[in-house]
TrEMBL record:
SUPFAM superfamilies: Ribbon-helix-helix
Name recorded for this polypeptide: Ribbon-helix-helix protein CopG domain-containing protein
InterPro entries xref list: RHH_dom-containing, Ribbon_hlx_hlx
Highest taxon, organism lineage: Bacteria
Organism: Streptomyces cremeus
């Protein structure tokens, strides 16, 4: 682990993080570390998409990228109940 640092946030967010950490039997720091390691950056998402396309024998292109983004947008709309 690197050098400790501080993050400024609202009291509400801090309190929620404290509850979430307590429910998991961990600390806020460990909770944040786990959350940060679980989320992919845009660059990592692009790399994984390209790798998946290669495994499927598909040339990863801007069109394929848009089709994938459109598909995930539809999935999220259905999950949130906002699909038309």
């Amino acid at each position: 682990m690197g050098k400790p640092t501080s993050i400024k946030t609202s009291e509400e967010v801090r309190d929620r993080l404290r509850v979430l950490a307590a429910e998991r039997g961990t600390t806020i720091t460990e909770l944040l570390e786990e959350m940060a390691s679980r989320e992919l950056t845009e660059s990592e998402r692009q790399q994984r998409a390209a790798e998946a396309a290669r495994e499927l024998g598909v040339q990863y292109s801007a069109d394929i990228q848009r089709a994938g983004q459109d598909a995930w947008a539809k999935v999220r709309a259905h999950q949130s109940g906002t699909a038309a």
